[in-house]
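In full, the data:

***
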Amino acid sequence: MTLVPHKNETLVAPITALQAISRLSLVTQPASLNESKEDPGILFIGHIGQSSFRISRKVNYPQNYLPIIKGRIEGSSRGCIIFIKYRLFFSSTLFFTFWTSMTFLIGLFFTAFSKDYLYASIAFSSGIANYTVTLLNFNKQVKLSRAALDRALKMDA
């Protein structure tokens, strides 16, 4: 188990790999720095390749815990198999690891050098709270992203 939140899953879809790619392409907009017009049919922003994709759910507000979804699609005799990895964006991972490490080091400092156990417990508690909030919000965003992915592939119908 790693300390940084992530999730892997495998989906078996009753559609061909080509259908899965085309369905994802219909609801995915390429990432760009320019403002684009609002299209309610666009669910994701990212890149769709011939047998893989790298997307994230389209949001209209900043979301620090939004996962990047990396996927690989392979055809099978009964449809296709989609291997999915949910990860935090690099900047979110950097922010998360920095503050979790920092609160841990501050707690160690107060424990080892100052012998101020109240401040040490506050620092450790802050680190645990940061970690818990990150895990809970990441899991919530994974659930929302998975629901959008199911809608895109029309697997929930």
Notes: The chain is about 45% helix and 25% strand. Strands lie at 6-13, 28-29, 44-48, 52-57, 67-76, 79-88. The mean pLDDT is 89.
